[in-house]
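Listing S7. Sequence submitted for prediction.
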Amino acid sequence: MNVLQLAMIGCGSMGGGMALLFAEHGITVSLNDPSEEAMDQLLATAKQDGLQDRLQKHSSYDELCKSLGSPKVFVFSLPHGTIGDSVVDGLHTYLAKGDIIIDASNENWQNTQRRQGKLVP
């Protein structure tokens, strides 16, 4: 599978860095973060690096998911704890069989497995 587009959920220092690396390698990145400021800072950095055409911000999961092809690919870069559950719950209605979630968060593996169980049809 050749991934040309993905969503980065969490645009802090780790997620932002990953988003820029993906963009440098030709991948279009749709951004989502509760902080507009974090996304705007990342877009400013992308502009300085000549990558502004590869990143776009989305304030809702609906917009975010509509920006992606199929299968949808998501990369999570979230703080540990319940935020991952909130994101999975918010995305659940937009997911289809074959969509991919890569949890690159600083999270206990058991929480990731539990979330996977929530998504099994």
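Caption to Listing S7: primary sequence and predicted structure tokens for the chain studied. The two ends are 23 Å apart (CA to CA). The chain has a mean pLDDT of 94.
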